[in-house]
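Retro notes (design track)

What went well: tokenization of the new backbones is finally stable.
What didn't: we kept losing track of which sequence belonged to which structure.
Fix going forward: every design gets posted as structure first, then sequence, in one message. First example under the new rule, 368 residues:
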């Protein structure tokens, strides 16, 4: 089989890297097509020695996004003609949808963002199978939908596939004894972010005061990750500067994550790191972690977020407590990568199997 993976966000290659490597081991061919964003997606894919073709660059404006449809569709069309994929596996996307339909290629998509329903609804007519987490709370009425017991983050952070690399600490002159706090702010340029405002835009003084306070009171080592925007020069000493593929390894050793990146919040929870999401967005995967496992909180109130952060940092037993919560979560969820591999290799029979008996996926449960 020839499997074409499409990546539109820095997390996309992380989700499927282990899947791609498993498929290669089984003598399948894979190709990654990239719509570059933040100038890091290509570097992430290349760090895993996976074949890559760049087909475009993400645009910030609504008009730019619409014009991009034509260019990226054309580039992907010609790449697909040359590679001859059996299956396209991607996030929900009109790009891959249009090309798969025109060239009669089987199209398997995954999605997890309830606030991106415009994209999902536009993509659905062009999809053969849509894989959604069972915590995705919108009811998408279609025989194309398959619900699976995991999040996308589990695909690359499940203990079967991920071991945190301590060398990242040495790179940043840190040790296992340090209390590390990771903060993340973004430009909120995605389609589903339209109308949202970054907390960092009008609260830089408050954020800086909080950082200095936890440095002094808890000896915290603070790092700030920013995407598609910059904070002022006072934050330069805190700006995170590591290879993109090492970001997740640093997160694994953190005592706290606080920021606007909801995927990073979910990653933190899967790793057993307390998180505070500074966007009270109704996302099923964060609601699941917050309400069913107590791994973090969502809030739009910066003062409350900082108050909660101090509670977490003051708790000397929090790492052990959160690892217990993590174990419960992982024992309830399936190994998403192994499930995806089975689904692709046995497609389309696998779709029929899941429709007839969704508990078939329980064979991918992995007790830790």
């Amino acid at each position: 089989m020839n499997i074409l993976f499409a990546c539109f966000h820095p997390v996309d290659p992380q989700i499927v890297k282990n899947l791609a490597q498993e498929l290669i081991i089984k003598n399948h061919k894979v190709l990654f097509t990239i719509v570059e964003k933040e100038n890091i997606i290509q570097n992430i894919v290349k760090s895993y020695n996976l074949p890559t073709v760049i087909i475009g660059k993400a645009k910030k404006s609504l008009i730019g996004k619409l014009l991009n449809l034509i260019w990226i569709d054309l580039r992907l069309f010609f790449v697909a003609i040359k590679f001859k994929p059996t299956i396209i596996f991607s996030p929900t996307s009109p790009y891959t949808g249009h090309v798969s339909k025109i060239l009669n290629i089987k199209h398997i998509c995954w999605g997890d963002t309830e606030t991106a329903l415009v994209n999902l609804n536009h993509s659905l007519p062009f999809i053969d199978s849509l894989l959604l987490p069972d915590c995705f709370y919108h009811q998408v009425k279609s025989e194309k939908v398959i619900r699976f017991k995991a999040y996308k983050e589990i695909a690359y952070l499940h203990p079967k596939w991920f071991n945190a690399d301590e060398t990242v600490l040495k790179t940043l002159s840190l040790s296992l004894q340090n209390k590390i706090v990771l903060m993340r702010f973004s430009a909120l340029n995605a389609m589903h972010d339209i109308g949202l405002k970054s907390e960092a835009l009008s609260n830089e003084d408050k954020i800086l005061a909080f950082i200095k306070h936890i440095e002094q009171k808890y000896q915290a080592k603070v790092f700030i990750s920013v995407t598609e925007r910059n904070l002022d020069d006072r934050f330069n000493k805190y700006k995170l500067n590591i290879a993109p593929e090492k970001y997740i390894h640093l997160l694994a050793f953190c005592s706290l994550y606080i920021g606007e990146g909801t995927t990073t919040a979910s990653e933190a929870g899967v790793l057993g790191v307390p998180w505070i999401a500074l966007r009270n967005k109704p996302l099923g995967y964060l609601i699941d972690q917050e309400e069913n496992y107590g791994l973090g909180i969502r809030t739009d109130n910066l003062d409350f977020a900082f108050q909660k952060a101090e509670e977490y940092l003051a708790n000397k037993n929090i790492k052990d407590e959160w690892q217990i919560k993590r174990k419960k979560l992982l024992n309830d969820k399936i190994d998403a990568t192994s499930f995806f591999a089975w689904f692709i290799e046995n497609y389309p029979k696998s779709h029929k199997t899941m429709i007839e008996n969704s508990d078939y996926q329980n064979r991918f449960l992995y007790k830790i």
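Added context from the reviewer: The chain has 15 helices and twelve strands.
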